[in-house]
Amino acid sequence: MDADTFERWRHDHAFLGARHGTHERRTWAVVALTAVMMIVEIAGGVWSGSLALIADGLHMATHVAALSIAALAYLVARRHVGNDWFSFGTGKFGELAAFASALILTMVALLIGWESVTRIIHPVPIAFGEAIPIAVLGLGVNLVSAFLLHDDDHHHAHGHAEDDYDDHDHHHDHDHDHDHDHDHDHDHAGRDDHSHHADHNFRAAYIHVLSDALTSLLAIAALSAAAYFNLHWLDPIAGLLGMIVITIWAYSLIRSAAAVLLDAVPSRARAELIRQRLEMGGDRVTDLHVWRLGPCHLGVLAAIVSKHPQPPSHYKARLDGIDDLSHVTIEVNPYDTGASATVS
Predict the structure, then answer these.
(1) Structure pTM?
(2) Which has the closest alpha carbon to 18: 204, 273, 199?
(3) What residue ranges define each of the domains in the chain, with the CATH number in brackets?
(4) For 67-117, how does the pLDDT look when each residue is reduced to its tens digit (9 = 90+)?
(5) Which is it for the CA torsion 6, 7, 12, 14, positive or negative?
């Protein structure tokens, strides 16, 4: 077999998101910004003797750790994108990092809740002169970070779009051009679920800074009310409210990341559309697997029984117009009337 023919049929396993490079750079920028803020607060607290500054600096350290996990996931996934040790590429590194970040976020929320309950039972004096400026400064840093991590165009790049990371391009494993006669079916499946487009790692980093911004905002409101209206109980109540919201966000992130790690079907409508396309002319699909390989990348493994079996490329051509199918494997078996009486 000549090299050109081999390359034509070789499967590419580069399943990183279409904005992998952009998301990686922005995440590292937020890590740097948060780390600088952490160092300034701890150094300022040591210099001034302010325990509040030191405590908030140590709190920022947990966010530096979580955001670093997200940034390192981008780095490792990019550097090992061509490593054949990973059977289906490195596209799921982001989900692994997002799951870990969500667990860290859950622990932070529980710690906030524990501290809030403790403050309700055993109130402590609050140094409003230090606490309010720290909360305002923290809110400013988190708003800047949230701006950097906000995916404002809700990018839904298709699997054949040009990638943002260096030295690698996406391409489908189909050996044909897309047939746009099936756009109506594609739109129907696309409306069902866009979760396979999401970069959960980037979303996890965004939720981290957003949760910190929320706690800072609640703290500013509660501390201001406590300082001017002597309502000291509002501070721990605001903490409990923040814990509830952050826990809900973390739970949502855990569910979405875990679904990808467990190879859950990303879209039932899309899976059904694939089955309908393959079951034409009396052909039957006896086994179908659809799973997410990375942002905007889906894998398909299908076994077909046919009275008139065709080459796999014939069945792949039926899937033209369904976006994001980056790794399609078709198994074709002839229908044997003598041995297939139990096939339904």
Answers:
(1) 0.73
(2) 199
(3) 3-156+194-261 (1.20.1510.10), 268-334 (3.30.300.30)
(4) 999 899 888 888 887 777 877 778 888 899 999 989 998 998 898 889 889
(5) positive
